[in-house]
Amino acid sequence: MTNWQSRVKIKHLLTDDEAPEAVRASMASIAEVIEATPSFRNFNTGRFRLIPDGNGIMSECDFANRLMDELYDYADDRRIWVE
Fold first, then answer.
1. What pLDDT, in 10s, does the model give residues 7-63?
2. Given pLDDT bands bounded at 50, 70 and 90, which one contains residue 68?
3. Is 80 helix (H, G, I), strand (E, B) or coil?
4. In the chain, where the domains are located
5. Which residues contact 64 (CB under 8 A, 6 or more apart)?
6. Measuring CA to CA, how many Å separate 34 from each of 9, 58, 59, 67, 75?
7. 60 Cβ contact list (under 8 Å, min separation 6)
8. Which are the contacts of 8, defined by CB distance < 8 A and separation ≥ 6?
9. Which pLDDT score is estimated for 56?
């Protein structure tokens, strides 16, 4: 069993709405929580606030999902429980 060093609650900020405005609002809210969490002090949240427009290959949601993957990888490496 993993010994989690800290916890952060962000899952309630995720959205099922794939509209660009909803995705951007969700990611900005997650950035606020992450920035206020000492365990994430070295994690760059700047891109969470700058979700680009979809480009025909990737949607705003795809960009956001990649950032969330990075967040989860960062958390796993530092034993931060994300809920």
1. 999 999 999 999 999 999 999 999 999 999 999 999 999 999 998 888 888 999 999
2. very high
3. strand
4. 6-82
5. 23, 26, 27, 51
6. 9, 25, 23, 13, 11
7. 18, 20, 23, 24, 51, 52, 53, 54
8. 33, 34, 37, 39, 40, 75, 80, 81, 82, 83
9. 82
